[in-house]
Amino acid sequence: MRLSSIAFCFVIYSSTSFGQWYESQGMASIKNNDSKAAKTQAVQNALKKALLVAGASVSSVQQVVNGLLTQDEISIRASGSVNSVELVSENYSGDLVTVIIRADIFPQEKKCFAADYKKSLLLTRSNILQREQANIGEIYAIDRTLIKALSKKIQKQGIYLDTKLALHTKTEFSRYNQSLQTQSLKNLAMSLANMTDSQYVLFSEIQDLSLAHDENNDWQFWQKNIYQRQFNVALYIHDGSTGERILDKQYQSSAPWQFDKRTTVDVTSHNFWQSEYGQQISLTLDDMVNDIDENMMCQPTQGRIVQVKGNSITFNLGKRHGVKVGDEFSLLHVNNFTSDDKRTYSGFNISPYKVIVNSVSQDNAHATTTEQHVLDNIQLNDLAVRY
Question: Do residues 131 and 209 lie in contact, with contact meaning Cβ atoms separated by under 8 Å?
Fold first, then answer.
């Protein structure tokens, strides 16, 4: 049942302009009994998803709309590509509010070509910065379980990414990151990307798993020993070809820890993920997926060249990434250099020639130059890029 519709619409368009309706779901947790704030957050979450599907590149929903919630109505002043929004339904279950919205979104006049392709993203095992905080519940396996859950959500909810996992061993990321060893971080990212044939590498740090000292509800004598537990996590994404960091974001949340302090908790179990703490982690992962997708959408789609022969090349992007026969790519020759202070910087020489894909397999594409020029300045491990 439609609960409300939009009262304000400031987008003026001619009869030849058409929007496209997108329906999406958003969720948010209710904190401090503030259901109105939770509803606002859920609507923003749903609208962000709709905008991403429509190809809009926004850093936040607030930059697209200014939403005001009343008891029975949503009024939205729209700008840019959003014409109108309707609240289709809202549902309250425990501390969660779920909404479904329908948005009339105009296609962007100029959409980045890179959004046509999926980027390969390597997800590495997370690092628990203060491992002793995992003692309560013995939840040490959260460093792997968290990334598995993130990967599943990206595959299910994400639009622009194809994920790979590297969970068996820990990396040296946190040691380099905490000591600000920038060059070592770049080298680590490039090495992992090269070994796994990935375009981008995601690292993460679980920064806080601490338990509050005060009981969460000491006034409820039948529910003793429930404490608030933190879940603070930071994610970092590096470009696999240059090693440079392209995304750095932190998330802070907390939820009641409903398990006994002395009980070992299986973080892979249904019981854990259905607890308030597990649901809060799941909501945090939803935010991470949205932010990753949004920031990665217009990042260059770059394939590593694995063969050069005359005026043709083969690179490691294929049907799985969205490459099609007839697609045009630019060529970049890797030209790294070392500064006077011994720091290594990534550089590229742009080839004057472009190539057009003439055959494509699941993981590779074969392309030739548009004017049959010999690619004598292009070598193995150079890049084919679509911006």
Answer: no
Tens-place pLDDT, residues 148-201: 999 999 988 877 888 999 999 899 999 999 999 998 999 999 999 989 989 999
Hunting for tokens 């790519």 — which residue is that? 329
Contact 350, 294 (CB under 8 A): no
Assign a CATH topology to domain 113-296: Rossmann fold (3.40.50)
Residue 39, token pair as written in the block: 């509803």
Angle of CA points 323, 165, 112, to nearest 5°: 35
Q: What angle do CA 309, 315, 319 make, to 5 degrees?
A: 130
Spatial strand order in the sheet of 82-93: 20-29, 96-105, 82-93
Q: What is the DSSP string of 25-68?
A: EEEEE--TT-HHHHHHHHHHHHHHHHHHHHT---S-GGGTEEEE
- C-alpha–C-alpha distance, residues 379 and 153, integer Å: 37
Task: Indicate the CATH number for domain 20-105.
Answer: 3.30.1660.40
Specify the pTM: 0.67
What CATH number does the domain located at 301-386 have? 2.40.10.410
CA distance 106 to 159: 19
Q: Do domains 113-296 and 301-386 have the same CATH topology?
A: no
User: With b meaning 16 or more CB within 10 Å and e meaning fewer, what string describes 27-54?
Assistant: bbbbeeeebeebbbbbbbbbbbbbbbbb
Residue spans per domain, the chain:
20-105, 113-296, 301-386
